[in-house]
Amino acid sequence: MPIGWLLYLHVTGNSVQHYSNLAQMNFDVSKEQSRFLQKVEAACKSIRDYEEKCYLEERLNDRIVPVFGKIGMLGCPISTKYGGLGYDMLTYALAIERIGEEGASLRTFFSAHTSIGQLVLQGWADEEQKKRHLPDTTSGKSAMAFALTEPAAGSDPASMTTRFERKGDIYVLKGKKHWIGNGTFAGVMTTFAKDAASGKISAFIIERHMSGLGSEEMKNKIGLLTVKNAEVYFDNCIVPKENLLGKEGQGLNIAYSALIDGRLSVAAGAVGIMKDCLNECAAHAKAREQHGSPLAKKQLIQEHIARIAVNIVSSRWLVYRAAAARQRLHEYVESIKQEEREWLSKLGRNNREYSALRNEADSLAAMAKFHATNCAFEAANRSVQVFGSFGYRKTARVARHFLDSRATTIYEGANEVLELKIASQVLGDGYRAY
Ligand SMILES: Cc1cc2nc3c(=O)[nH]c(=O)nc-3n(C[C@H](O)[C@H](O)[C@H](O)COP(=O)(O)OP(=O)(O)OC[C@H]3O[C@@H](n4cnc5c(N)ncnc54)[C@H](O)[C@@H]3O)c2cc1C
C-alpha cells in the first residue's frame, strides 16, 4: 500500500478510498481561468520594475491594489456574489505561484488580504457581515488583515492575553498583536481575544474606524520590504456585537481554519520563488564564464540547478493536491443549506464528513508549506551561491528571494511546529509533541 494511503487511512478513517484516489485529481484549468492567469502574468510583468524600486527604497508598493484590482485578483477565490471572480482554489494557487515569482514580499499582500483575510469571512461570516465587508475588499476600496499573533503568543495562540468583555450590545477588547501584515492600513481585520471570565477565545471583525484601535509600523525587517507589518493595539476597543465572527468560543477553530489557506498561499508562493531562482541561475550560469568556460558547464553548479528543479516539481505536487483538498472542503461547506450550516456551526462543525475533509486539507496544506518553504529558502541560498558576489546585493532578484524566503519558514505556522503537527497526524493525538 502506498505511503500516502497509509497516511490518509489514519487521517480520514473510513473515507480513505474516496480521498486518496489520485486518479480523481484533475489539475487542469478551464480556458477562462487560463485567460485569467495570462492577465496575472501581464500584471506581474508590469509591476516588476516598480516592485524592485519600492524594495530598494523600503516602501509599500502602492500599485498592488490598482494593478491587481483591475484584473480581479483582489477577490480571485471570492464568490461573484461579493464582487470576486469565484475561482477555485487551484486557480488561486496558480495565480499566487506566479505572483510568488515576483517575490514573497508582493505575494504576502495577497496572503494577508485574501488567504487569511477575505476567505475567513467567506467561510465563517454571516450573510450580513459578508455583504457589509467583502465587496469593498474585492473592489480594492479596503484591504484586509488577520491579527492573531502576540508578543507572548506566537506558535501557541491559545496562550494569548488579549481579552474581551461583553457589555450589553458591545464587546470591549484590550491587548496587543504584532507582525500583522497589512496591519498599518487594512480597513477590516479579523482578530482573536479571550473571554476575561471563561477563558474561551472568540473571533471579531475589526473596522479601522473603531474607537480604541491603534496600529504602528514594525521597522527594521530584514526582508519583505514592500509590504507593511504592524503592531496592533486594542485599547478598550469597542466592537459592536454584530461584529462577532462565528459563535462565541469558536475563535481558535476559526483561526486554525484560516491558517490552512494561509499555508497554502505561502506554499504556492514558495514554488514561484524557486521558479524565479531557477530561471535567474540558469541565465547567469550560461552567461558568466570562469576558468575558460560558462559556469553552467561546471558540475557543482549543475548540482545547484538540478536540486532546485527537483524541489519545484515535488513542491508543486504537494501544493496542487493541497489546493484540490481545500477546494473539496469549500464545496462541501457551500453544499450545505443555510439552516443546516447554522446547525453545523452550533456543533462547532463537528460532523464526520466535514472533519474528514478539513483534516485532509489541513494536513496537506501543512505538508505543502513545510516542504515548499524549506525548499524555497534552500533554492534562494543556492542561487546566491551560483551568482557569487553578484547575488550579494539587494538589486539582484536572488538576493531579495534569499531575504524574503527566510520569513516563509516562520510565518503561518513555524516549520518546526508544522513538522510536529504532521508527525502527530501520522502517530495519533496521543503523540502530540507541541
Ligand atoms: C514577516 C512576518 C509576517 C507575519 N504576519 C503575520 C500576520 O499577518 N498575522 C499574524 O497573526 N501573525 C503574523 N506573523 C507572526 C507569525 O505567525 C509568528 O511569527 C509565528 O507563528 C511564530 O511565532 P513566534 O515568532 O512567536 O515564534 P515562537 O513561537 O516563539 O517560536 C520560535 C521558534 O521555536 C519553535 N517552536 C515553537 N514551539 C515549539 C515546539 N512546541 N516544539 C518545537 N519547536 C517549537 C518555532 O518553530 C520557532 O522556530 C508574521 C511573522 C513574520 C515574521
Describe this structure in words.
A hairpin with a 2-residue loop joins strand 2 and strand 3 (170-181). The chain is 55% helix and 14% strand. The strands form two sheets. Strands 1, 2, 3, 4, 5, 6, 7 and 8 form an eight-stranded mixed beta sheet that branches. Helix 11 runs antiparallel to helix 12 (397-408). Residues 1-21 have low confidence and may be disordered. The protein starts with a helix and ends in a 7-residue tail after the last helix. The chain has three domains: 31-141, Butyryl-Coa Dehydrogenase, subunit A, domain 1; 146-245, Butyryl-CoA Dehydrogenase, subunit A, domain 2, CATH 2.40.110; 251-431, Butyryl-CoA Dehydrogenase, subunit A, domain 3 (Up-down Bundle). The protein has 434 residues and is of the alpha+beta class. The chain contains 13 helices and ten strands. The longest helix has 37 residues, at 251-287. It is globular and about 80 Å long. It has helices at residues 3-12, 16-19, 31-57, 64-70, 89-101, 104-124, 127-139, 251-287, 299-335, 338-346, 352-387, 397-408, 415-427, and strands spanning 144-147, 163-167, 170-181, 188-195, 201-207, 213-217, 229-240, 244-245, 289-290, 293-294. The chain binds flavin-adenine dinucleotide (FAD). Residues 112, 146-149, 154-155, 179-181, 224, 229, 407, 410-411, 414, 416-417, 420, 434 line the site of flavin-adenine dinucleotide (FAD).
Q: What is the percentage of strand-forming residues?
A: 5-15%
Helix and strand pattern: HHHHHHHEEEEEEEEHEEHHHHH
* Name of the CATH first level of the largest domain: Mainly Alpha
Summed up, the helix count is: 13
What Rg do the Cα atoms give? Answer: 22 Å
Bound molecules: flavin-adenine dinucleotide
Averaged pLDDT, please? 92
Major β-sheet profile:
8 strands, mixed
- In the CATH hierarchy, what is the architecture of the largest domain at level 2? Up-down Bundle
